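User: If only I could read backbone structure tokens as easily as an amino acid sequence. Those tokens are not coordinates but codes from a learned vocabulary of shapes. Could you go through the record with me and say what the backbone is doing? Here is the record:
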Amino acid sequence: MYASGPFVMNTRAEIEQAYRDFHSGKFGSIPRALRHVIHERGAVSGIRQPG
């Protein structure tokens, strides 16, 4: 099992492919108008603020 960042896969090659897919936009994108809202809530860093 390999883990890196938000990805957990069976092989290092799968991790590398996941990063390529992520950076190419294969997982979708966040509309520019919503990016500041998501960042303020901590979702970008993976940390959710209380309340």
User: Anything to note?
Assistant: The radius of gyration is 14 Å. The chain has a mean pLDDT of 74. The first strand starts at residue 2 and ends at 4. The chain has one domain: 2-40.
